[in-house]
Recover the amino acids of this structure.
């Protein structure tokens, strides 16, 4: 007897690639790399466009990258460096994230997706990062999703879900973001830092909710940096299938 694959909801990218900003086209392109990665670990992606989409039967959520979150959602400033602030995209991403969290589903946020999670948890963002010792985005494409990634290392905190999925204390990642976590959301713990001290990843203290600021779906990425969190998401979904009452276990129990 064939069993259907577990379904993972992914909010669609709503901005058109036909505009003047190439970062939007870049975000739309790598969106489908995320879809491919979900399939590669034995999960079935469900692309949703309706903020009120029925999540019945959905086993997890992946929040992908894209344009900037409207700063009014976290008490920030509307500045010239913002790009592709799309109220419809915000409404979709925030609704899916909030309802997934209310349903105790595992959630994985990537770049903008991590920023959405941080804001949902009551955190804030740097509207535009000041220059530092680490280059977080290609200078010619100052945004979250250009076609050009820069590479830098991050230090991973031991004893975390992220550390388990990566297997190394320091990893090299592909980066393309001009915003990042400022005030970390309530209930989150930072799990990776860049050399300049910027928070590059975080997770819920008690639940399977992970956000990373980098792009595991980048074409040049490989190994656990590319698919480690996707495999961990698949493992968490499989664990819940056999232990449906274990969705709110402490982090130590989630780590096995």
């Amino acid at each position: 007897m064939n069993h259907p694959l577990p379904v993972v909801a992914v909010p669609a990218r709503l901005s058109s690639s036909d505009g003047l900003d190439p970062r939007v086209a870049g975000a739309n392109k790598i969106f489908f790399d995320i879809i491919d990665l979900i399939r590669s670990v034995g999960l079935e992606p469900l692309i949703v466009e309706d903020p009120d989409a029925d999540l019945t039967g959905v086993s997890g959520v992946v929040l992908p990258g894209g344009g900037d979150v409207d700063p009014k959602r976290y008490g920030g400033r509307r500045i010239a460096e913002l790009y592709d602030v799309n109220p419809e995209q915000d409404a979709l991403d925030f609704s899916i994230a909030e309802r997934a969290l209310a349903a105790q589903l595992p959630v994985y946020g990537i770049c903008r997706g991590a920023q959405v999670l941080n804001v949902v948890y009551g955190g804030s963002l740097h509207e535009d990062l000041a220059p530092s010792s680490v280059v977080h985005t290609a200078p010619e494409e100052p945004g979250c999703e250009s076609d050009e990634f820069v590479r830098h290392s991050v230090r991973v905190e031991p004893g975390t879900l992220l550390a388990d999925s990566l297997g190394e204390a320091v990893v090299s990642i592909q980066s393309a973001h001009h915003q990042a976590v400022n005030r970390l959301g309530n209930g989150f713990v930072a799990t990776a830092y860049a050399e300049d001290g910027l928070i590059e990843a975080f997770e819920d203290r008690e639940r399977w909710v992970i956000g990373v600021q980098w792009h595991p779906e980048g074409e040049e990425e490989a190994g656990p940096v590319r698919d480690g969190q996707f495999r961990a998401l698949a493992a968490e979904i499989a664990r819940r299938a056999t232990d449906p009452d274990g969705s709110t276990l402490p982090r130590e129990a989630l780590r096995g």
Remarks:
- The radius of gyration is 17 Å.
- The chain has a mean pLDDT of 91.
- The longest helix spans residues 223-242.
- The domain at 7-254 is CATH 3.40.50.880 (Rossmann fold).
